[in-house]
Amino acid sequence: MRIFLKSLSVIVIMLVLLVVAASQLISPQDIIEQVSSQVEQTTGRTFTVNDEANLKVFPSLLIELHDVRLANIENGSRSDMARISELVIHIPWLSLFSGELTIDKFVINNPDILLEKRVDGKVNWQFLPLTSTNKEAKNTANIDVANSTVMTLPEAFDVSLGQVEINGGKLTIIDHQSKDTKVIDQLNLAVMLPSLREDLNLSGNIRYMEHVFELESTVTTPAKAINNQPFSINLSLTSKLATLNYEGKVLRQRKELNGMLSLSGDSVKQLLRWQKLPLEAKDEAFNQFSLTTQVHFVGSKLSLDELQMKLDALAFNGSTTIDLTTPLNITSTIDLGILNLNPYLPAETTVASQKKQTDSQPLVWDNTALDLSALAALNAELSIQSSQLFAREVKLGKNAIKVTLQNGIANIALKSFQGYEGEGSGSIKVNANKKPYIINSQFQLTNINAEPLLTDAIGFDKLMGKGQLAWELTTQGLSQRDFIDALDGSIDFSFIDGAIKGVNLAAIAKSASNIVAGNLAAVNLDSNFSNAEKTDFAELTGKFELNK
Hints:
By secondary structure, the protein is of the alpha+beta class. The protein has helices spanning 2-25, 28-43, 95-98, 134-139, 222-226, 268-274, 348-360, 450-458, 480-485, 505-517, 525-528; strands spanning 47-49, 54-56, 62-71, 80-90, 105-117, 162-167, 170-175, 180-193, 200-208, 211-220, 231-238, 243-252, 256-265, 289-298, 301-311, 314-323, 328-335, 338-340, 378-386, 388-391, 394-396, 399-406, 409-419, 422-431, 437-449, 463-477, 488-501, 534-546.
């Protein structure tokens, strides 16, 4: 027991002597100078400490630095890219005897970090050292757009940060070209970077626009990213609003990437409110949503393949290609499956109220000029189909629509639809590339069953029979009133082997004959207008001509 106590005493005395020696041998100012030198060599920026440094040797060896600054890019919006109220540097004990400073851990408290892009396109997060040669510039696509040079990390150069903790503070991102500013605050992050040639791991949480996001990310490896070689990235972002996951590869920075993207959440309405875009909708509409897709971006073209989308009870699939040109160009093929629009349409009470007002008051068309110039901001070719469509009481079978936007001209082609035992097709063309706007439309319905169609569409159940409906209409103008005043064209309908319910024209004619003959006992006008009565017809046709 005495031997153990003596041994323990010797160990304690040695540790005390080591701590005392360390406190005498270590100069905080020397370490600050070494850190400053390493940071400046690594980044090409000045690293300064404007307040006194504190050295602590127990329970671990660390230095506390206050009011730490990292210089910004030349002609930046402020002098410092980063301001840190407190920086704690953990130093391994063994590095005291190795002759070379190594850092085990950084703790950054309350940083104020600025990331900005100048008007000329240069960014302040591009650090030295980098090499560039004209020969390399000719033989590789690794080009920095702002400086037209090839970026290469020297082979002997490396950065080892160990573990970096960030507590509190904020990150401000400014794009002076687009005049856009974003602020991310309440930082609580841990970064592991043992080497630029090993994986970088990031985890923790941040706050953006009053919502907290949990963050997990891995980059394999930073050296490849700096040298513009293909590297992998995994990202997971979780909040009460939504969950986003991306797993893929960056093949060429700003030029090519591919991977799998997924996004899901419990409420579209809540997500839009967060973006200050409130959406008024029924309780059962615009709630749960999800999206998964294979993303491929090359040059200026973004492709979303194997696209699977869900919204409430709806499920869509297809593919989309977006060409990021001016104007934007979109090509998309979407299968909407069974499309029930009823949860997303205005409530019936609202429609009934509007109808009542229309019945009791004259209809007044708005004379306000419409602005359709937005059609010129987008070129698109959309192919949309569904197996069934429900809109209020209207029920349609298979249908296919093609929408084409080109240079301010919209063509909407109802290629085909099935419903009410018949088939239909039609088109609408809107020419908005000059004023007044011109609209042409044509539509055909064949072999339709009139009674269920008219009952579901307008609540009229008095007409029975099979028939067809067609129109060709054109108009032009700048407002609703203009379009109504300039309507020109025709509407045709014809029904065969049908009946008009609720009235017996033959019986009415017979009653009229009895009245003329004075046989009033044979007259029964009530039965002649009974719902049980009907007038059969072999053919019922009509044509309306509209002239401007």
